[in-house]
UniProtKB/TrEMBL annotation:
Coiled coil: none
Protein name: RecA family profile 2 domain-containing protein
GO cellular component: condensed nuclear chromosome
Record flagged with keyword Transit peptide: no
Amino acid sequence: VRQKLAQMLSRLTKIAEEFNVAVYITNQVIADPGGGMFITDPKKPAGGHVLAHAATIRLMLRKGKGEQRVCKIFDAPNLPEGEAVFQITTGGLMDVKD
């Protein structure tokens, strides 16, 4: 399975380079029981190292309070870890009002 995943990701990388387009990959998160007892909801991206090395920037989206959503920079070569809170409305993405 890992070999097939690596082949598919390699094809996507070639397409991105050849046509100068961004490739957006989504995947699920899975429970990480070894994530530590001080983490309230330990999760990690599925796909392991194969998927991690294929992506330049990795973001993790999750539900926040109420209608809020949180986007966390999980891994990026030129950006520090950080989070942005937003809402999805009929008018599009909106900043959360304090």
